[in-house]
Amino acid sequence: MDMQNVQLGTHGTRPEDVLAVARGNAHITVDPSALAAVERSRQVIDALAAKPEPVYGVSTGFGALAVRHISPELRAQLQRSLVRSHAAGMGPAVEREVVRALMFLRLKTLASGHTGVRPVVVETLAALLNAGITPVVHEYGSLGCSGDLAPLAHCAQVLMGEGEAAGPDGTVRPAAELLAEHGIAPVELREKEGLALINGTDGMLGMLVMACADLAGLFTAADITAALTLEALLGTDKVLAEELQAIRPHPGQAASAENMRKVLAGSGLTGHHQDDAPRVQDAYSVRCAPQVAGAGRDTLAHAVLIAGRELAAAVDNPVVLPGDEPGQGRVESNGNFHGAPVGYVLDFLAIAAADLASIAERRTDRLLDKNRSHGLPPFLADDPGVDSGLMIAQYTQAALVSEMKRLAVPASVDSIPSSAMQEDHVSMGWSAARKLRTAIDALGKVVAIELFAAARALEIRTTGTQLEPGPAATAVLRALREADVPGPGRDRFLAPDLTAAEAFVRTGALVRITEEVTGPLH
């Protein structure tokens, strides 16, 4: 991937910038106007710090300890202590892309001019990202309120030259060594800066942005596999007609139906449901594919809307509201750090993903059942009885779907009080994001198994007959075989074949090959 450049200003960022930094190691620059805004907000903090009246986050303790006024000589220690004590995560390290997204989104808020940090903090955090230094952030420690506190604190600790981080080669080393190696001076935090570095919903938002991108590809892939299954089952494409979608005007449904129509164009298999074993209608899992996938698409569109709003936000507490003159302005406490808006859509996406997987599994099972597959051999086996065919592939798919149903249980309704009841309602958005990532990984596998089964069924169906699949299906079958995903035959070690099919889906090859025939899909 070519090195991309991402510039941060005062007005937030875009989903594609988050992806470029998190997954593509894009180089970050901070617009001079943003640094000027950062300096103006810092002047407000300096002015307030010089006054005798206590100001939360500037000259007080934190959370339930905010009642204590901190004298000037202890304020640097206050910030260090805040970061060290909050870097309390446990469990396995989370993925590099998650940490990079988290750091970039915290940098986005710092550059907004509403947090009161000095420009050096912004510049140093950008330098860490550009150097490929990735703090070790642990699975557990965020309740999704007052921000993703522990994950962000582990990042802030590295900014101070403490803790552990992975270098560009992935090796975990002391942060002080990595900073020195890259010529980055640790930051001595001053008033407000420790709090500004840890008080944001950046981890859950970063995972939401990546989840939206991943699900967009998987929804398209699932439309393709649904169409291939319909073809293999000799189903009718009449239910996909544009005028039928128009009388129930959900945009996601219309998009999925159009995708399926494009994939099925020119097929010699569709419409044969009235031949040997007449069917008035196809089963729900086939006939209602656009309705289910379409509802998921509309859910995704809502999540993208929420993510866009969050990407334009400056999430911190307290926030700096600069005045018209240098040093003028005020610091206001607020509740914008609460992760409910993000947590809800993360949970909503997990529900949509689980249902998409559920209907895909039902279609796969139909392909394997000789009583419902309209002439296909049991389990698509070469010699049923001697060969088991794809029997256990469906077991694996069913296990994945069952796990996804468990992961669809909302995290955002499970508030648990913290900080001596000062923080008595939390979002659990980090937990919602973590389980969604697991669900998306499972969905990719489920879609891949349907693809594997549908492709085998199509080849079995057309061998020795005059029936021909459509041009899109033909192109997919050819590309699968070129990608070492085998066709029908005697039983063989199946796990590597399913893994190859999963790679074909998750790398975007399925969509890309299909679009070479159909043109752009939704």
Automatic annotation (TrEMBL):
Q: Which residues form a coiled coil?
A: none
Subcellular location field:
Cytoplasm
Entries under Gene3D superfamilies matching the protein: Fumarase/aspartase (Central domain), Fumarase/aspartase (N-terminal domain)
* PTM section of the record: Contains an active site 4-methylidene-imidazol-5-one (MIO), which is formed autocatalytically by cyclization and dehydration of residues Cys-Ser-Gly.
Part of which pathway? Amino-acid degradation; L-histidine degradation into L-glutamate; N-formimidoyl-L-glutamate from L-histidine: step 1/3
One GO BP annotation of this record: L-histidine catabolic process to glutamate and formamide
Q: Which PANTHER family match?
A: HISTIDINE AMMONIA-LYASE (PTHR10362)
Q: Where is this cross-link: 5-imidazolinone (Ala-Gly)?
A: C145-G147
According to its record, what are the GO cellular component terms? cytoplasm
Q: Into which family does the record put it?
A: Belongs to the PAL/histidase family.
Keywords, in A-Z order: Cytoplasm, Histidine metabolism, Lyase
Q: Which reaction does it catalyse?
A: L-histidine = trans-urocanate + NH4(+)
To which species is this protein native? Answer: Actinacidiphila guanduensis
Its Enzyme Commission number?
4.3.1.3
Q: Sorted alphabetically, which InterPro entries does this protein's record hold?
A: Aromatic_Lyase (IPR001106), Fumarase/histidase_N (IPR024083), HutH (IPR005921), L-Aspartase-like (IPR008948), Phe/His_NH3-lyase_AS (IPR022313)
What SUPFAM superfamilies does the entry give? Answer: L-aspartase-like
Q: Which residues carry this modification: 2,3-didehydroalanine (Ser)?
A: S146
- The name of this protein is Histidine ammonia-lyase
**Top-level EC class as recorded in UniProt:** lyase
* One Gene Ontology molecular-function label: histidine ammonia-lyase activity
Tell me the NCBIfam families matching this sequence: hutH, PRK09367.1
HAMAP family attached here? Answer: His_ammonia_lyase
